Amino acid sequence: MKIKATLIGFSAILMWSFLALLTAASGKMPPFQLSAICFAIGAFPGLFTFLLRPQRLDLLRQPAKVWLVGIAGLFGYHFLYFTALRNAPAVEAGLIAYLWPLLIVFGSALLPGERLRWYHCAGAVAGLCGTVLIVGKNGFHFDPAYAFGYGAAFLCAFTWSGYSLITRRFEAASTDVVTGFCLATSLLSLLCHLGLEETIWPEGLSQWLAVAGLGLLPVGAAFYAWDFGVKNGDIQILGAASYAAPLLSTLILILFGYAEPDMRIAAACGLITGGAILAASDMFRRKAPSPAAPSRRPRS
Questions:
Q1: Are the beta carbons of 38 and 207 closer than 8 angstroms?
Q2: 133-150: per-residue pLDDT in tens?
Q3: Is the dihedral of CA 203, 221, 16, 30 positive or negative?
Q4: Other CB atoms closer than 10 Å to residue 205's CB: what's the count?
C-alpha cells in the first residue's frame, strides 16, 4: 500500500512537469486569472464524483483546521509565488521557492513514525544542486533591493512544505476534501484578479486547450494525487523526488522546441535522478529472509 501511494504521489510530480509547457501555451492571461480558472476546472473531477455518489458529500465535513491548512496551502502557496515573481527576478525567486522539497525531507523528522536517514538528506541535497544547474543557467544575482520578493519566495517554500507535512497528520481526512480546497482557491484567486489585474482572455482554441490541460492535470488532478501520496506514501522519497519536476519540465520544453539542450541538463539529470534513487533506497532494499532454525533430531 505504501509503495502504491508513493507512486500515486509521484504522478503529481509528473503532472507538475507539464506546468511550464502548458502555461507557455496558454497565452498572456494574468496569473491570478489563470489560477482562478484552472482551480475551478480542477474541482470538476470531485464535483462529478459527488454527482455520481452524493453520499461522499459527507466526507467534506472535516474539522476547521483541515480546511484552514488546505486552503492556506493551495491558495497561500500560489499567492506568495505570484507575489515573489512580481517583486523579484524570476530565476532567484523560483530557486528560493523550490526549497520546499528539501524542507519536506528535513521536516519529516518531526512526524511521528518517521526516521530521517543520511541518504534522504543526501538525495534531497543532490536534487537541489541539480535544480540550481537548471534554474541558474545564467547565474544568480541576489540584490537586496528585491528583499521583499525573496521573502515572499521563502514563505512560499515554507507554505507548501508545511502544508504537505501537516496534511500527513490528517490522514483520516478523505482526499475528496481537495475539491473544496480547489473551489476556495479559485474564488480567492478571482478576488485577487479583480483587485490587482487586467482581464485578458485566451486567443484561439489552442490556448483554451492549454488552459483546460492546466486545470485538469498540474492544477487539478496533481493536488488530489499529492494529497493521497503524502498521507499514505513515503513522504521523504516524495520530497526528494520532487526535484524531478524542474528537470522533466525542462526536458519537455526542449522536446516541444521551447528550450535548447546542453551539457548542463545532462549533469542536472544525473544529480536529480541519482538523488532520487538514493533517497528511495529503502524501496529497493529487501530484507534478507531469516535463516531457518536447524532441525533437531530426536535422540534415540
A1: no
A2: 888 777 777 888 999 999
A3: positive
A4: 8
CA distance 189 to 38: 10
Surface-to-core class of residue 160, CB atoms within 10 Å of its CB (0-12 exposed, 13-18 middle, 19+ buried): buried
Give yes or no for a contact between 128 and 244, defined as CB atoms under 8 angstroms apart.
Answer: no
pLDDT digits (tens, 9 = 90+) for 20-73: 899 989 999 999 999 999 999 999 999 999 999 999 999 999 999 999 999 999
Q: Which helix (H) or strand (E) holds 189?
A: helix 178-196
Q: How many CA atoms lie within 13 A of 132 on its CB side?
A: 11
Whether 91 contacts 68, CB under 8 Å? no
Per-residue DSSP letters for 267-279? HHHHHHHHHHHHH
Mean pLDDT of 286-299: 45
* CA-closest candidate to residue 230, choices 173, 158, 157: 173
Map residue 61 onto helix, strand or coil: coil
Nearest to 268 by CA among 145, 164, 133: 133
Residue 51 cell numbers, joined: 454527482
The stretch 146-159 carries a mean pLDDT of 95
